[in-house]
Amino acid sequence: MKKSFGVISLSHAIADIEIREKFSLSQQEFGDCYAQLSDVLGISEALILGTCNRVEIYYFDAQNKAEALVQFLCAFKGLSFDIHHSFFESKYGHDALTHLHEVAIGLQSMVLGDLEIFGQVKRAYQISCDVQSASTYMHRLLHRVFYCHKIINQSTRFKEGASSVSYTAVKLISDRNLMNPEGRVLVVGAGDMGKDVVKHLRNLGYLNVTICNRTNEKAHHLAQELGVHFIPYEQHKDYLNTCSLLMVAVNAKEALYTLTDFQYTAIRAVIDISSPRAVADEIQTLGIDLYNIDDMGQRIQRVMENRSAEIGRVRDIVSESVGEYLQWTKELEFNDHLVQFKSALEDIQKQVILANTKEWTVSQQQLASEATSQLINKIMKLPAIGLRNACQRGEATELSESLCELFDLERKSNIKSQ
């Protein structure tokens, strides 16, 4: 049964951060979600992408299961479908393939050409592989996307210039004069985003940087690697008394910091690039500046003109990549039909030899089998060449269907699989 590609997407393009953070998935939830996609919806090949700006489920299935997937995700998170379904968009077939390419490349990002999203897509693919939710079609598609990304990097200026959520968050410090270069900053979170934040702080001249993480060993290793200070996670709230700036990049189900954590501290500003948000809005009543993910997006758009000029060329490369993937799927489908056709001929061969060579010796039967096998191979050449040529012209579907109908290949294939 032929499967097509689809996606449901909740992103910054439609939903603000209050909605997006409701659907944020923890590491444990990713595994549970994959298992239930298979058990509940019968989707065995999928990829779940979760970032600070989007939650998406990509899938292969013979049917468009967008509505069922939105219902599933709402139920999985214990949220109302009636209230939240309008925040999702869905695509199927060619549009879904284009969407995945554009997401991975950064065309759909809050930060045009975002530097972090490609790595996030690669990690999502690795998780899909680890839980055995990726097979032939998904493997081919993702490697097609990776190659497309490489071509865009090599042949366009779309990725030129440092621009990402983590970079913009750090750049905000000097742009808004939130802290002088000698000031003390605490970074909470040692994941990919936290690591990038620390790197950008160092590169931009902020030397008094301290990092902590729920897993102390991970933060300690990162501090040694990047040449910054480390404190145990148990001390992070007490440490606010000595800091000018707090930067948070964690994945927490509820606010990590509330109003009481900032009373009588030296903190002047907080930059929260977590999803869901880790810092309560109420801290602003203390006169503390608070910035979140959406604030980053508003600032980033002002430096995107140089990338915008490359969008046309990037879309052409994406279109070519999607076309090549679809060409491969057609050839794969037609190859399956050729295999079925050859199998049908071999069944006829066995029946004829069995009916007409009962009195022959074993060696005579072997000669007959070899001769008729050569005949089958010669017969196969013409439809194989014809289908491949027709596939390149985009005309192979009718020929392939005629071949299946003439030899009843679908029915015979189903009988063999039973």
Automatic annotation (TrEMBL):
<dbReference type="InterPro" id="IPR036291">
    <property type="entry name" value="NAD(P)-bd_dom_sf"/>
</dbReference>
<dbReference type="Pfam" id="PF01488">
    <property type="entry name" value="Shikimate_DH"/>
</dbReference>
<feature type="binding site">
    <location>
        <begin position="51"/>
        <end position="54"/>
    </location>
    <ligand>
        <name>substrate</name>
    </ligand>
</feature>
<comment type="pathway">
    <text>Porphyrin-containing compound metabolism; protoporphyrin-IX biosynthesis; 5-aminolevulinate from L-glutamyl-tRNA(Glu): step 1/2.</text>
</comment>
<feature type="domain" description="Glutamyl-tRNA reductase N-terminal">
    <location>
        <begin position="8"/>
        <end position="156"/>
    </location>
</feature>
<keyword id="KW-0560">Oxidoreductase</keyword>
<dbReference type="InterPro" id="IPR036343">
    <property type="entry name" value="GluRdtase_N_sf"/>
</dbReference>
<comment type="function">
    <text>Catalyzes the NADPH-dependent reduction of glutamyl-tRNA(Glu) to glutamate 1-semialdehyde (GSA).</text>
</comment>
<comment type="similarity">
    <text>Belongs to the glutamyl-tRNA reductase family.</text>
</comment>
<dbReference type="InterPro" id="IPR036453">
    <property type="entry name" value="GluRdtase_dimer_dom_sf"/>
</dbReference>
<keyword id="KW-0627">Porphyrin biosynthesis</keyword>
<dbReference type="InterPro" id="IPR015896">
    <property type="entry name" value="4pyrrol_synth_GluRdtase_dimer"/>
</dbReference>
<feature type="binding site">
    <location>
        <position position="120"/>
    </location>
    <ligand>
        <name>substrate</name>
    </ligand>
</feature>
<dbReference type="Pfam" id="PF00745">
    <property type="entry name" value="GlutR_dimer"/>
</dbReference>
<feature type="binding site">
    <location>
        <begin position="114"/>
        <end position="116"/>
    </location>
    <ligand>
        <name>substrate</name>
    </ligand>
</feature>
<feature type="binding site">
    <location>
        <begin position="189"/>
        <end position="194"/>
    </location>
    <ligand>
        <name>NADP(+)</name>
    </ligand>
</feature>
<dbReference type="InterPro" id="IPR000343">
    <property type="entry name" value="4pyrrol_synth_GluRdtase"/>
</dbReference>
<feature type="active site" description="Nucleophile">
    <location>
        <position position="52"/>
    </location>
</feature>
<protein>
    <recommendedName>
        <fullName>Glutamyl-tRNA reductase</fullName>
        <ecNumber>1.2.1.70</ecNumber>
    </recommendedName>
</protein>
<dbReference type="InterPro" id="IPR015895">
    <property type="entry name" value="4pyrrol_synth_GluRdtase_N"/>
</dbReference>
<comment type="subunit">
    <text>Homodimer.</text>
</comment>
<feature type="domain" description="Quinate/shikimate 5-dehydrogenase/glutamyl-tRNA reductase">
    <location>
        <begin position="183"/>
        <end position="296"/>
    </location>
</feature>
<feature type="domain" description="Tetrapyrrole biosynthesis glutamyl-tRNA reductase dimerisation">
    <location>
        <begin position="314"/>
        <end position="409"/>
    </location>
</feature>
<dbReference type="Pfam" id="PF05201">
    <property type="entry name" value="GlutR_N"/>
</dbReference>
<dbReference type="GO" id="GO:0008883">
    <property type="term" value="F:glutamyl-tRNA reductase activity"/>
</dbReference>
<feature type="site" description="Important for activity">
    <location>
        <position position="99"/>
    </location>
</feature>
<keyword id="KW-0521">NADP</keyword>
<feature type="binding site">
    <location>
        <position position="109"/>
    </location>
    <ligand>
        <name>substrate</name>
    </ligand>
</feature>
<dbReference type="InterPro" id="IPR006151">
    <property type="entry name" value="Shikm_DH/Glu-tRNA_Rdtase"/>
</dbReference>
